[in-house]
Amino acid sequence: MVNLRDIENAREEIKDIIHKTPLLESELLNAQAGRKIFLKAEHMQKTGSFKIRGAANAVKQAVQEGAKFITAASSGNHGQAVAFIAGKLGIPAVIVVPEDANRAKVAAIEAYGGKVEYCGFTSADRIPRAKELAEENGGVYIPPYDHPNIIAGQGTVGLEILEQLPDVDVIVVPVGGGGLISGILTAVKESKPDVRIIGVEPESGNDTFLSLETGKITAVSGTQSIADGLRTSQPGGLTFPILQKYIDGIVLVTEEEIKYAMQFFIERTKQLIEPSAATAIAAVLTGKAGKQDEKIAVVLSGGNIDLLELRTCLPD
Ligand SMILES: *Cc1c(COP(=O)(O)O)cnc(C)c1O
């Protein structure tokens, strides 16, 4: 299992590549929520999301072990992050994306120097293709969350929050496959076990909630939440045991609550976040996560949204 040392090592590995993002405060947000909220600004991170932390750690280590070629299977933030870091390190990357991938996202991957290959419509089509490409070319396939070096990289968010807000009471984290929260759980619970950590999922993609309730990895299918970074069908084989060991709870938010949080946040702070990040704001605004006089750190996991998508989050 990944431990605190792995996360401290990851921090050294990636420190010259990533931004140490600020922990922002908004008086207006605090007033509305009746809470003291601190925003971990990963929407201002390189490539627009925290995914660069895990990708940088995993790709750097793969290259140190001799990889000459990198693949990933994601049209989203992970694909962009892998393309970016491979470009930085000067090694080729092929990112396998679905046939109907968003054009803006494909353009971002290409702008970072990644090659794009289209394949099928589901991750069950893409992942085997990305693995096959890696095998054929002496390369390494980099998964989005279920890998020790990815988890360790994402955990650096937790180390930074503890430094920026040593008396934090609770940390609220969006949950997809669980790489981000399992890294944060490891970093925080192994140094300050009293800090509570709450995960957030959309109601329609509550695979981690169900898995924790039943005590075994449970899949849900056909999730259509606007929080597209959280649409993974089930927690990972490496991430889930970490959640079982350390997590304090998962709360669920509705699509309406996510949209309201997007609108409210953008209007008040003039900053752009993507719906996956807005789930954590929604959890606090609805009072589902965090109590009245606690210091609450909310992980704003990303800010990648194009204007067409943004329109679907705004009032008619
Ligand atoms: C990937 C992603 C998540 C979920 O992270 P996991 O490690 O899969 O749990 C949340 N928000 C954004 C913006 C993401 O890109």
Automatic annotation (TrEMBL):
Major enzyme class: lyase
Domain spans labelled Tryptophan synthase beta chain-like PALP: 15-302
Coiled coil feature spans: none
EC numbers on record: 4.3.1.19
Pfam families assigned: PALP (PF00291)
Record flagged with keyword Magnesium: yes
UniProt KW Magnesium keyword: yes
Cofactor: Mg(2+); Mn(2+); pyridoxal 5'-phosphate; Ca(2+)
Transmembrane residue ranges: none
Keyword vocabulary terms for this entry: Lyase, Magnesium, Pyridoxal phosphate
Catalyzed reactions per annotation: L-threonine = 2-oxobutanoate + NH4(+)
GO MF annotation: an example: magnesium ion binding
GO biological process: D-serine biosynthetic process
Annotated function: Catalyzes the anaerobic formation of alpha-ketobutyrate and ammonia from threonine in a two-step reaction. The first step involved a dehydration of threonine and a production of enamine intermediates (aminocrotonate), which tautomerizes to its imine form (iminobutyrate). Both intermediates are unstable and short-lived. The second step is the nonenzymatic hydrolysis of the enamine/imine intermediates to form 2-ketobutyrate and free ammonia. In the low water environment of the cell, the second step is accelerated by RidA.
Name used for this protein in its record: threonine ammonia-lyase
Organism per entry: Planococcus halotolerans
